[in-house]
């Protein structure tokens, strides 16, 4: 026999797991974006002149400016997904 209380508890667990998973993916995306930006700036710097660290800072700044709109859009999308999950009552089959 089906136990409705058990099914509700499982639905809540899945809901919490989904919310937690999206938050973790969002954090990983932000971290990966920062790492990729830094690597791009380092690569540009060392392809030009190893001694010129000012060039690195300039390249990093340019890479950040290039990546920022993309990362901001992704973070906004994750925030919206998190908000929708939090506001939902749980998903039913």
Can you give a write-up of this model?
The protein is mainly alpha-helical and 93 residues long. It has one domain (19-87). 86% of the residues lie in helices and 0% in strands. It is elongated. It starts with a helix and ends in a 6-residue tail after the last helix.
Q: Please give the share of residues in helix.
A: over 70%
Give the helix tally: 2
Q: In total, how many domains does the architecture comprise?
A: 1
> Can you tell me the overall shape?
elongated
- The low-confidence parts are none
Beta-strand share of residues? under 5%
Quick one: biggest sheet? none
Radius of gyration, CA atoms, in whole angstroms: 21 Å
Blueprint (SSEs and pairs):
Layout (H helix, E strand, L loop, with lengths): L3 H45 L4 H35 L6
What is the structure about, briefly put?
By secondary structure, the protein is an all-alpha fold. The chain contains two helices and no strands.
Descriptors:
elongated, 93 residues, 2 helices, mainly alpha
């Amino acid at each position: 026999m089906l136990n409705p209380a058990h099914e509700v508890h499982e639905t809540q667990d899945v809901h919490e797991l989904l919310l937690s998973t999206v938050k973790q993916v969002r954090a990983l995306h932000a971290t990966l974006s920062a790492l990729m930006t830094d690597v791009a700036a380092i690569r540009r710097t060392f392809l030009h002149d190893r001694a010129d660290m000012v060039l690195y800072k300039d390249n990093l700044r340019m890479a950040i400016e290039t990546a920022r709109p993309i990362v901001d859009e992704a973070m906004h999308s994750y925030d919206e997904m998190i908000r929708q999950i939090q506001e939902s009552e749980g998903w039913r089959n």
